[in-house]
Amino acid sequence: xxxRLALALALGLAVLAACATxxxxxxxxxxxxxxxxxxxxxVVVTQPLPDGKQxxxxxxxxxxxxxxxxxxxxxxxxxxxxxxxATDDSLKALCTEGxxxxxxxxxxxxxxxxxxxxxxxxxxxRCVDSQDVWSADAAGSWGSSDEKFRExxxxxxxxxxxxxxxxxxxxxxxLKSTLDTLPNPKLNDQDIDEKIExxx
Length: 200
Prior knowledge:
6-stranded mixed sheet; globular; 7 helices
């Protein structure tokens, strides 16, 4: 009986460990009343560069833009990278006309023998007062090869060069888990038409 219980606990912990990428995530308690209909149009920025590589920063920002546009109800208008660590002023400067929020990704990336160790601190800052609407911390280590991502990885390598290849799968898996904890804004008919035009 004890052995069976220990085995069940071990299996349960293994399952938890397999999906325990996101350490914590936070959404403002007043999100539904305040931000759900006001913070919809975003710009994604990766800052500073992961592993000091410009191409890797661009990869991260594009993965995030595409994933959020395809799987959440936000409208991501642009994606970019900045080499210097983010400050409130540098983020506020991204709040150009038509942008209501900045999705910041602060990466940590380290190559391993067969993949990469990755971590991210992510935050969604609303432009009107620079307050955080959502934030999350996540980390994980994955191999570079995954048959499910072969075609996607090939597209990113073609776009950003061979140096990003070992990072594509670990970066994608980390960002997907993290960004899936984002809340969903409420879109009106005009927003929906605009999202369709984004076509990602």
